[in-house]
Amino acid sequence: MRHSLKASALLLGLSVFINAQKCPDYGIRECTAPEILALETDNCTDYHIFVARGSDSAYPGHQGDLIHLVCDGIDASCNYENIIYPANSSWSGEGVWCPSAEKGTKNGRTQMQDYAERCPDSKLILFGYSQGASVALDILGGGGGAIYDCEQDSNPALDRSTVPGSHLLAAAVFGAPRRTANQTYSHGDGANYNGTAARTEEQLAGLAPYSDVLREYCNYGDPICAPGTEPMVVENHWSYFEKFQDEVAEWVIKISKEDEDQGKNNSSSTSKSATTATATSKLSTGKPTASATETLDVQNNAAETTSADATGTAPKMTWGAGGSLGALVMGIAIAVSML
Ligand SMILES: *[C@@H]1O[C@H](CO)[C@@H](O)[C@H](O)[C@H]1NC(C)=O
Ligand SMILES: *[C@@H]1O[C@H](CO)[C@@H](O)[C@H](O)[C@H]1NC(C)=O
Ligand SMILES: *[C@@H]1O[C@H](CO)[C@@H](O)[C@H](O)[C@H]1NC(C)=O
Ligand SMILES: *[C@@H]1O[C@H](CO)[C@@H](O)[C@H](O)[C@H]1NC(C)=O
Ligand SMILES: *[C@@H]1O[C@H](CO)[C@@H](O)[C@H](O)[C@H]1NC(C)=O
Ligand SMILES: *[C@@H]1O[C@H](CO)[C@@H](O)[C@H](O)[C@H]1NC(C)=O
């Protein structure tokens, strides 16, 4: 038992190291390839993507390929900016998840407001994964409440009828811990299950005005967004981009085309922002680089789920969970990342 756990933990750690080096190669990896980072700038473009990454991952984390696909497919200028926040998993300490998510929500709103005021002709797109998915939903619908043994401050919903809410073209989130099942925007075979925490009626009402431009994905067996679905395997939290990024990119590109057509109909002058999509790389701005820490993210979130559920129906993890294995995986991941 010990040996097989050790062996699989070792494999997990090693696969992180291998996968972190290349995109696209889905699973436990982050997308920080130069062609993706080159799209990062907050200059005014026709379409601008805000990205909230998952816990403990490098910017922009797992959503890099999705960003790239969308900007590649959009027939206009397009770039992205990261929502700046720590993305601490609860593994990093007691009560750290909530302040992290609060910061993401606050910064995300401010960044969207600032950008939309500075770039009034730009259409906004919002993506989020894991903790970042919760953050994105909190930005739009309002957030707050108990989760992962802490209490997140509440924030109001973003008004759909004024800037920046009125400039939102599309939003897609994947594997959110704070979610409610069976919404019109729920997608994936875990759609019928509440997350680690559910959204309040008020928060759902806050999301409702965005339902026509929102897709919220949850996989069955994802310990974060669908705890209690059996078998819960961590791969179900990693597989969103392998499974859904093509359809999400197609959906966003289609919406952008409709938007472009409408813009052309409304005015004869197709005056679009002059900025090109080819952005200056921010590789040298001290942003974190790809690392093996995403393993810790999922490991941690799964452990969080387990502890959060300790009083109720404790979910079973087929890949094992709990302090000693977590510490073991963390040790191996850190060791491997130093290779
Ligand atoms: C939270 O994340 C930031 C990086 O995003 C890191 O510097 C900090 O040490 C983390 N905090 C904890 C408690 O782990
Ligand atoms: C979602 O809807 C399905 C089908 O109606 C139902 O079985 C399930 O209990 C609902 N989920 C939640 C969390 O209420
Ligand atoms: C799911 O969450 C909603 C609140 O958003 C709650 O009304 C409902 O009872 C929950 N369903 C289950 C099965 O826990
Ligand atoms: C644009 O105008 C044309 C011609 O009037 C019409 O056929 C088309 O449906 C319009 N497109 C949109 C997106 O409104
Ligand atoms: C085009 O005009 C319609 C009707 O006035 C308006 O609802 C829509 O937002 C406009 N679209 C663009 C892209 O300006
Ligand atoms: C972004 O804006 C800055 C300042 O206006 C400008 O110097 C830079 O060339 C722009 N970058 C791109 C990629 O357009």
Automatic annotation (TrEMBL):
Q: Which InterPro entries match?
A: AB_hydrolase_fold, Cutinase/axe
- The secretion signal range is 1-20
Spell out the Polar residues composition-biased ranges. Answer: 286-310
* Superkingdom to which the source organism belongs: Eukaryota
Q: Which Pfam families match?
A: Cutinase
Disordered: annotated segments: 259-316
Which Gene Ontology molecular function entries are recorded, alphabetically? carboxylic ester hydrolase activity
Keywords attached to this Swiss-Prot or TrEMBL record, sorted alphabetically, are: Disulfide bond, Hydrolase, Signal
Sequence ranges of Low complexity compositional bias: 267-285
Q: What is this protein called?
A: Acetylxylan esterase
Species the sequence originates in: Pseudopithomyces chartarum
